[in-house]
Amino acid sequence: MFNGFSVTGSSLELLKIGEKGIIQFCNTQDVNLLNQVISLGLTPGTYLTVEKQFPNFVINVRQRRLAISKEIARKIYVRIVNR
Question: What are the Ferrous iron transporter FeoA-like domain coordinates in residue numbering (predicted)?
Answer without folding.
Answer: 10-80
